[in-house]
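thought: fold this chain, then report.
action: predict
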Amino acid sequence: MPTTEGELLLTYATRILALGETVAARLKERTVMGNVRVGLSEDVAVSALPAALGRLRRACPHVHLEVVVDHGDALAERWNDGELDVAIGVSSSFNADPVHAWNVELYWVCAIDEQIDAALPLDVIVYAEPCAWRRLMFDALLNAGRDFRVTVTSPNIGVITAAVESGLGVALLPAENIRPETMRIISLAESDGPILSVNYGLYAVPRQSDSIRAAVELLTESFHAMTQPLR
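observation:
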């Protein structure tokens, strides 16, 4: 029987292979060219979405990509100012209707060898404000009756994951950012309640060229695969 980590890696490998076959078939149907301005929320722009844009670039070399990575509110401002053709970010930051929307489930994680002492205040690692994950974390801890203290604050997901791996505290992370070899998922209390999640949306301009439609299709499939929950 495979280990939990092995099952996780197998799940991601299956998703990636299936996605690659779908994308290859669709992109062979036509030659796509043009410019696409893409905005990605920093908290999800780690592997799946940039990889999707990389595949689009390789499959459609005549498409010029302008990719911007920023936090949710700044990304929404760029969208409102007409600086982007496609954007993926926290839905609550946008005042437009998304083309697609998904819930990204978040998991409590700590370093793989860290021991959580329920008698001590919980050390937590958080995003800098403004951040929907941060507010969700604080509300869940207060509802669970857990004392806590912030040990690391950063606007960068790379810093957050590195701090978790170094044993500096507990964080909320989506499945895509959890590294089974260095992190483990924990349950803080029976009163944690339902699985925590944040709603994200994909936004696209109404009038779309072939290149924008290709980007929307590929990002939709990649983001949907990325947001599948761990089971």
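thought: worth noting. The longest helix spans residues 4-27.
final: tokens above.
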